[in-house]
Amino acid sequence: MKLRVPPNVELHPIDLRYGGEYSKKISEYVGRFDIVVIDGRDRANCSKKCVNSLKKAEG
After folding, report:
1. 42 with 19: CB under 8 angstroms?
2. What does the domain layout of the chain look like in residue ranges?
3. String of b and e for 4-43 (b: at least 16 CB within 10 Å)?
4. For residue 59, what pLDDT is reported?
5. Which of 16, 21, 23, 32 could form a disulfide with 45 if both were Cys (CB 3.0 to 4.6 A apart)?
6. Which is nearest to 19 in space by CA: 2, 41, 35, 34?
7. pLDDT tens, 2-59?
8. Residues 16, 5, 54, 52: is their CA dihedral positive or negative?
9. How far apart are CA 55 and CA 34, in angstroms?
């Protein structure tokens, strides 16, 4: 897989345990995101965890 991704992509293989490290990974990033796309089996927990990693809306 590593050979197929562009250089600006980071791969982090994490075992899936519902509510585990998989859904918490986003909180390790210092910056904020404009958008987060979630497509996985633990998407409900990922959605809850990503809220604090989103940029505040301007306006």
Report:
1. yes
2. 14-59
3. eeeeeeeeeeeeeeeeeebbeebeeeeeeeeeeeeeeebe
4. 74
5. 23
6. 41
7. 678 888 888 888 888 998 998 999 999 999 999 999 988 899 999 999 999 999 988 7
8. positive
9. 6
